[in-house]
Amino acid sequence: MKLTLISVLLASLINIIPAPLSVREDKGTFKLKGTPISCDAQMGDKALQAVAEFSSQLTLCAGEIYPISKPNGLSLTVRDGAAKGMVFCVDPTLKDEAYTINVTKKAVVVRASSDNGFLYAIQTLKQMLPVEIYGSAAAEDKNWELPCCEIKDKPRFAYRGMHLDCGRHFFSTDEIKKVLDVMATLKLNRFHWHLTEDQGWRAEIKSYPKLTEIGAYRSGTMVGYYDGPSDNIRYGGFYTQDEMRDVVKYADKLGITIVPEVDLPGHMVAALASYPELGCFGGPYEVWYRWGVSPDVLCAGKEETYKFLETVIGELCEIFPGEYFHIGGDECPKDNWKKCPNCQNKIHELGLVSDEHATAEQRLQSYVTSRMQAFLATKGKKLIGWDEILEGDLGEGATVMSWRGTKGGIEASNRGFDVIMTPTTYCYFDYCQDPRRQESDEPICAFWGDLTFEKVYTFNPTEGLSKEAASHILGAQANVWTEYIPTNEQLEYMIMPRLFSLSEVQWSELGNKDFKKFSDRVHTWGFDMLRLKDFNFRNKPATPQE
Fold first, then answer.
1. How far apart, in Å, are the Cα atoms of 202 and each of 165, 176, 217, 317, 323?
2. Cα(177)–Cα(418) distance, integer angstroms
3. Does residue 442 carry a pLDDT above 90?
4. Domains of the chain and CATH, by start
5. Which residues, listed in sequence order, are joined to residue 24 by a DSSP beta bridge?
6. Rounded to the nearest 10 degrees, how much is the dihedral formed by the CA atoms of 132, 137, 140, 146?
7. pLDDT tier at 75 (50, 70, 90 boundaries)?
8. Rounded CA gap, 473 and 514, in Å?
9. Neighbours of 295 (CB within 10 A)
10. CA–CA distance, 125 with 338 (Å, rounded to integer)
């Protein structure tokens, strides 16, 4: 316990977010002054590229050249204590994503076993330098040096995610890349890309071109909350397959894997407007301008529906190489299925019945889920779904994303399913940041909850779980639903500073968390970093005095 307290204190002093596993600070500094950088020949291409970009940024900001080499016998030099300058050395004894940094007056030695471990180490090094390292101009008047210290670090959770709903409101690939940059700074490693909704289909599917010709655009957008009228202004957009590949490549360079989502069998009105034969009653359908949950969903009784889903998902699997594919599964009304002859015939054919555990229609959705899970397995993918997929029968190997509180995640983990915790009470970044929103100038946002910077920090994804159940908690994720987030400026405001808080929930051990010290780090480093990245963390432009 004594060591932990010391670690927290010292991590605070050098402003690292999220807090490392341990920090031991020594006297003195390492002065960079154009120091040579040596890289282990065994380092991967991604890590080498990250080092090169780090060197370029140092050259720009510090005004000196930082030459890179790959000398022979580097590991022996490090082992013998003869290293000089900045050294990046492969250490196979370290776990994936773990790293160590040793800074003395004569050398900086960085060790990791994986590309991502080196990427995280570089993010930590940047946080230890003058904050101008995040800028785009020279700052030669700053002290370009590192404090002597020893850092040992690894993440608490393997899955550290953020979600963005691009169905309700569309964000450009440049805007998404800007979010990815900030995620990488905080060592998040999953971007959950919500690509389809009732209000807009955003992913180009070559086999079904009407999805973007028709489904990507709506006639207007609801004004205000759920009873508001349409503004009658045509709205939409979509990502081409080449654009999605570009974002995947960009994210991978940062150590971030993209998890695509096609939400099914509900939240599919944009698809039904494009191909009405996929519905229970043939339409006509229009891309929704409203918020909320539509009663119109995919028909689960037609084989045509499954052909459509497998084709769509198959095309996207070729674009997104990550191990996970999210199929949604949330908020799927069953009223149409109860009246649809095709769905009822499918229920009879499968022998599905209602009992005290689930209705026949809920089990029909389980059948849809199982079909998608089996298909994804042929593509080498694992299925993720919102916690509604627990209703009915869920196949072994599925991962549950728990959003309706933590109850679904607790149930799933106790049943042996892997879980990602993303409860509304801690992780919904569309909730208002200011509990005094009625008196403040905070813009319109989701009215059903408040979520402060401090409350996010108090989240513990494994609270109340046995050791065995806790082992199934893969991590946590921020969800950003965009009904009331129409602009990039507001998107950035809703993300920050709450993502600082969640990053420490996702990465840092419980014993290394202290809100007061964390808040000080945000104010002494975090906000300056965001300013230099031109990332909005206020709901209105800051004045010069601020």
1. 10, 14, 9, 15, 21
2. 29
3. no
4. 2-153 (3.30.379.10), 159-507 (3.20.20.80)
5. 150
6. 30
7. confident
8. 22
9. 12
10. 59
